[in-house]
Structures are given as structure tokens and as C-alpha cells.
Sequence to fold (611 residues):
Amino acid sequence: MAKARLGYPNLGLGVGLRTVHFQHILQQEPEVDWFEIISENFMDSGGRPRYTLEQIAERYPIVMHGVSLSIGSTDPLDFDYLEKLKRLARETSAIWISDHLCWTGVASRNTHDLLPVPLNETTLAHVCERIRIVQDYLERPLMLENPSSYVTFADSTMPEWEFLKQMVAATDCGLLLDVNNVYVSSVNHDFDPHEYLENVPFESVVQCHLAGHTNCRTHLIDTHDGEVIDPVWELYRKAHLRTGGISTLLEWDANIPPFEKVHAEVLKAKQYMGDHLPSTMSPSQETAVERESAVPHPLHFVVPEVR
Amino acid sequence: MGKQTSLPAQPTDAFDLRRLQKWMQSVISHADGIETGIESEQAREHIDVSAAEVEQVIERSNNLTSVERLGIYGNAYYSRLTECLRESFPAMVYALGEELFNDFSFGYLQRYPSASYSLCQLGNNFSKHLEETRPDAHEQEEGHVDWPDFLIDLATLEWNIEQVFDGPGTEGQSLLETEQLLAIPVDRWAHVVLEPVPCLRMLAFRFPVNDYFTQFRKEQKPEIPAPGDQFVALTRRQYVVWRLELDQIEYELLARILQGETIGQSIEAVATTGDWDLGQLAEKLKQWFQKWTAADFFQAARMP
Fold:
């Protein structure tokens, strides 16, 4: 029988490490279970961001989350990138490495967006082959996250959960289940998020993501700029129940509030952990801020200190 | 790693994945929007559908058409990358105003789309782009300086500050002390080669953009200054970027040292180009070497 979470530990409740919180974390040493870093922000850093990360990594477990692996792209894999990824993981003692089921660019370009792939056998074979190569190179399993998406392809022949199920079966990779992304995509693509969750291969889920999004009335955008809404917590409650406990991380990337508020938001997850607890929220209680438009996945950017 | 599980046969009617990705990338990054992007030659080269036929590729949802759904990615593409450039060039944003800066960025991103896994490289060609697209490119006279030079200089300064901030440094390493330099026997001084720290960058400007940047940082609302040469060294100490203004002759001397010339070769070269009283120059040299070692410009002194 396969080990739960591929044998990886349940790290508890973590927070995405962002530069605006560096000073607070170093000075206050908050009681956070673990941090997730954006790999690309530190791979080439020789300055304060990397120095700060090294200090934080001495005190907290670190997990690496990337945005440029582009596992679904038809461009060749970038082995220079993979080498830097592997080195950073070694130097920070990262417990695992994740990225997204997506492509970010083609023909040597990078859109810096997480673009969806058509969900069919052609893509599945292509993605699985690349996952195997990456895992062989990194000498560890890769965790892939279900992205938020805004289009579906006429060429798709299976739902996303089926694609994920076949992908993990073929490659032994792990899953980073983002329940906010499930919700965002379900609204954008008119499917039932609970049906999605019922079909996730939970034995392969190593980590869970939580985040806020923006309601643009006709669609949702994954902006990571606010609190987690009740229907997403409800999905989290189910995911927690099905996994029996899972490393959980909150992403907050735009309009980032003080660290205490971000930390308090992920600690709300405790309310949804007991399997005896009834669902207290109705999925209809949408509370995300409404706006005409928004930009998905805000940037992670480091502002220089200069004199 | 990984089981070699056999996968189902590929569907015969599937669009080729590479063609689909090239098509989608050209559509969502088209400067004139999604519909024009779909109709463009570069998109139709990959998948030959019109905007009216695009549902053959991208499905509609209950609430949005296929074009509207692609528009979410199209809108995000320029917004996201322009936001990144605004973060890299804050003084440029102030100098131009956000709207005009965004227009410059829009042109830049079309000419130099990102080819790196890292957003940290996004502004790499920004000053080059400004140089290549300056409106007076065809009427430029030798030595003539105008406002495009101000923008190019300011972009160069801001980009170099960012690179020095997060590039390689010498924190935690021992560096060349003034006393070590003074301990070198006089008869060997001329043959010494100084090894600069990796974070040291030398910049020559046609406008005093270093002063402008300082005033911007102090929120003093600077006006675009009159032309005037300014020479600046950038370095990093304890993870903070330092800017040091240099005399022109000091800049030229230091530039030669950074190119690997011996101290003797460097001094001889600058002494012959300027109208220098040797006693005056000797006094200046002493001041400069003290200033440079105090600012941690060098890692070591090598002697033959």
C-alpha cells in the first residue's frame, strides 16, 4: 500500500515567504511551522534575499515552489535551470520541490504566466515524459500543483482530476492540491468543485495551498490578495479529511498585510481540521471582493536597499 | 524514478501541442489585443482560425466567450510585466509619469520579450531599447546631448543598482585594507594589480542622474536636470548598495585598474592625458586610494 503523502511529513501550517516580512521573521521569530519560498527569487541571488533565506532556513523547514519549470512546454527542458534548482534545494535543505501543471512559454520566450495545457493523452504523454526526466535529474519526486485557469481547450478529452490521476500513476510524482485553484477553475469552467475533490488521488497529495481570489462577476481570478473565502475553506475541510492531515500553506502576494494577519489567516485552517466537525459554511457564501478586472498571480519582486 | 506505465493512444484529431502553444502565446501577447492576435499572420501560421471560429480551439464558458477568456491572459501579460518594470525603474516612472512609462514598457516588451526563467532579468535591455528607439536617432550629432540621454542614463543607473543589490558580493570575506596597501614597498607599487570586488561597477553619465536619483529617493520632486557629466561607482557593503561620486580623472584611473592594468600603467596613462601638476596628482592619488580602500573597492593586491 502506498504511503500517505508519498511518505513526506505533515509540516503543519505554513506561510509563503515574502520579502516584506523578512525583517519581522528574523527579529520576532514567529511560531510558524514552515515556509515556502518562490524558487526563482533565490536561485541567482547573491545579496540580501539569499542571506536572509539562509538565516530563516536555519530556524524553519523550507519547501521550494517554482513558477518557471514549464513542465508542459514543448521547448526543451532547461538543464541550467534544473541545476540551479537542485543546488538551491541542497543548500536550503528544502524538504520538497514543487511547480505547476502548466507551460510558461514556448520558442525560448517566457510569458511569466501559468498557462494551461489541453487535457488529453497527447499532453499527458508529453508531461509524464518530462516529469520523469526532471525527477531523475533532481533525484527526488516532483510535486505539481493544479493551476487556476481561465480557458479550456476544445482539444481536451478528460477532466483535470483524471489527468492528475493518470499523471501520478505514470510517474510517481506528488500533488500540491490548491483548493482555491480548484474553486476558481470550477467557477470559470462550470464544473462542480466537490466532484473534482472526490476524484483527486489523495494518496499522492503532499501539500495543500490556500489563497484568496478576486470575483470579476463573470469569472474569478486567482490574485492571492485577500482572505480565503468560505467555499474554499469547505473544500479544504474535505481535503483534510481525505488526507488525514496535510502540510498546508497560505499564499498572499498582493496588498500583503503585516505578517501577523497572514499567519492568522492560515491558522484558521485549524477550524476545519476535525473530522467530527460539521460543515459550518454554506458553499453559497461567496465573500471575495468584487472587481471588474484583476491580474492573476501577482509578481514576487525584491526592492533593493540603496544609499 | 517513475513507472513506465503505457498511456492511451493519442487522439488523431488533436492539434499539435507545439503549434497550439505557439498560437496561444502569439495571441495573448499580441500588442493589439486578442481578436487582432487571432487574425494575425503569426498566429494563423500555427493555427488557421479566425476570431469567429476560435471556439474550434478555445471553448466558451457559460459566462464568457472564447475571446473574452483568452483576454484574461492577454490583459495579464502586459500588466504583470509592466508592473515588474515599474518596480525596477521607480525613478524612471517618476520622471516620465506612470502612463508614459507604461507606454515605453509596452514597446520594450514587444521588442525584448522575456527569455529568462527569472523576472530579475526582465529589464536587462531597457536602456538599450531606449537608445535604439530614441526619437532623435537620425539627427544625432557627435557629442550632442538631449533628454533621451537623461532617460538612458537614469535607466542605466537604476538597472545597475538592482544588479549590484542581488548579484555576487563580498560579505563575510576579508578585503584589502589601506594599511595593506601602504605596506607595499615603494619600488614595487607601480607593478601592483588591484583585484576589484565583484560588486563594483563604474558608470559615466551625461546627466547628473545620481543626484536626481538621490533627490527622488528623498521625495524632493526633482526636475529633469541640465546636462552635465557625472561619474559614479556602485558597490555593495553589508547587502546595501552604495553610490560614490568620482572625479572624471579618478573615474578614468579606476576604470583602467578595473581592466587589469597595473597601478603604474594606469597612473601613467591618466597623467599624460590631463594637464596635471605631478605634486597635485600625487596628493590626489593618496586621497583616492584611501577613499577606495575605505569603500571596500578591492579584494586583494597582486604583485609580480
